[in-house]
Amino acid sequence: MKGARAGIAVLAGLVLVGSCALFAGGPVGGSDVAQAASRSPMTFRYPIAADPEHLNPFRSTTVATRRIINNVYEGLVTFDPKTSQVVPELAERWEISPDGKVYTFHLRKGVRFQAAPGVTYKDREVKARDWIWSFKMFLSGDTAVSEHPEYLEAVKGAKAFTEGKAKDVEGLRALDDYTLQITLEAPNHRFLYDLVNAYVVPQEAYEQLGAQFSNHPVGTGPFVFKEWRRDDHITLVKNPDYWQKGYPKLDVLTFINVPDPNTQVFQYRQGELDVLLDAPPGQLAAVKSEFAGEYHELPGLNVRYLGFKWTAGPFKDNRALRLAFNYAINKDELWNVLMEGARYPADKGVLPPSMPAADVEGYPFDPERAKQLLAEAGYPGGKGLPEITYYYYASSATEPTHAAIQEMLRRVGIRIKLKSEDNTTYWSHIGEDEVALFLSGWSADFEDPSEVFNFLFYKGRDDTKYDNPEVDKLIDQATATTDPAKRNALYKKIHEMILADVPWVPLSYSKVFYWVKPYVHDFYVASAGTYRTPMKYVWLER
C-alpha cells in the first residue's frame, strides 16, 4: 500500500504535462485562441464501483481493469460495436492458409505509440517487431509479468517458450515491418477472438517506466492516460495522434469512483454522471420508473457463482456436500424477489443461456434433497461440519443475497460465516487453499462455450482449481474442431461432465442494464457488457 501511494504522487506530477499536451493540441492564434478558450472540453463522466487493481495489460484479469485499458490499448482485431463480430483494428486485413494454421496479418501503417512523460522512443510507429515483443510478454511463464499466456497458447512453440524451454516463439515471424505471420500448432476456431485482448505495448514504455508501468498505461488507443487518484477517479484524455481520423469524439473520459449505488443514482439524478450502471438493492424498479426513457436492457454473458475449492478444505473429494449446497439455495428468490430481477436465476449450468450447449439440466431448489445429501456427505443435520467462511468482494457487499444464502443454508443444517474483502485483496486471496467457499463471476466476450470452458475449467485455471483431465482432452478437441455442429456436440458433453463434478453453485446469469442521458450518442453496448463499450465513438449533444 505504501508503494502504491508513492506511485500516485509521481503520477500526479505527470498530470500537468498530459493536460498541456491535450489542450495545446496544435498551433492556434488570434480568434482561434479565443474560440479554443471558450470551448468546453467534451467530458464524459463514467461511474465505477471499484478501483482497478492496476492498469497493466499483461496482467488484466478483471472487468475493473479491462474497462479502463480497453480505451488505451488496441489489438490486431477488435469487436464490431454493433454486431460483436471480429473486425480489423491495427491489422488492416489478414489471410488464413487452407489448412487453418497460418495467419498472415497486414499491419496498418502510420499507427504511433502514445507520447508519455518519461518515455523516449527510437521509433514511435508500430511495426511487426513490436507485436512479436508484446506477444512474447503475454506468453511469459512468470505470473508477475503476464497472467494471460492462454491468449497466444495456440501459437506454434508457445508452450516451450512459456515453460522456459525455448528463447523464441517458433510460430511468430516478421516478414517485413508491416507483415506479421503467425503459425499455429493446430487449427483453432477461436484464435482471432483471442487476439482481441492481446494488445501491442511499447517496449520502451514498459522498460523505462519500470514499476510505474502498472499504474500508467501507454498504448496506441484513442485515449491517453492522464491521472489516477486512488479511490477517487481515473482520467483519460483524447489521443492527439490517434490513427483513426475524427476519433475519439470525446476530449476527456473520467472514471469516477462511486462504490455506493445510492450515491450513483443521486449523482445521475443531479446530472453529475452521464451513465448509470447500477441501482441500489430494492430500488431497481423505482429507478427504472424514474428514468424510464433512459433505461436499456439486454441479456448478458456474465455468470456468477459460488466456487468450491477443489484442492483443499471440506469440499475436496466430497461431491455430496457440494451438491447439498446446490439444492439448498433458492436462486429464484435471490434474483427475482430480493434483487427485483436484476439478474436471471441460474437454473441451468455454467454457461450463459444464449451460448450453444447451454441447455443442460441444472440443480433445482430442493431443501429436503439438500438435507439427504448433507447426511450422505457425512454430516447428518449438519452435525460435525465446521462453520465455513463464505468470502465475497466488497463491491457486492450491499446486496441482500449474501445474508439470504446464509439463511437458506442454515435451514438445511449448514453454518457459514460471511466475510467481505476489499476488491484488491479479494481476487488474489480467493485462489489460496484456505478459501474454501467464495463468490466469483466471469464475463465472456462472445457467445462461444470456449469463453467459459477454456478459462475456468481447463487445467485448474479457475480459483476453484477444478481439474479433470478428461474434460481437458475434450476442450482441446473442441477448440481444434472447425465444424460448428460437431464442436457444439462436444461442448454439450463437456458441460454435462462439469455439472456432474459440481465445482460451483451457478447463481445467476447477467442482464446488461444501464441508463444513459439523452444527450449521449453512440454508446454501443453488447451482451459482453458495458465494460467493452468502445468509448471512442461516444459524443455528447448539449
UniProtKB/TrEMBL annotation:
It is found in: Cell envelope. This is ABC transporter substrate-binding protein. Residues 85-461 form the Solute-binding protein family domain. Belongs to the bacterial solute-binding protein 5 family. The keyword Amino-acid biosynthesis does not apply. Keywords: Signal, Transport. The keyword Transport applies. Pfam families: SBP_bac_5.
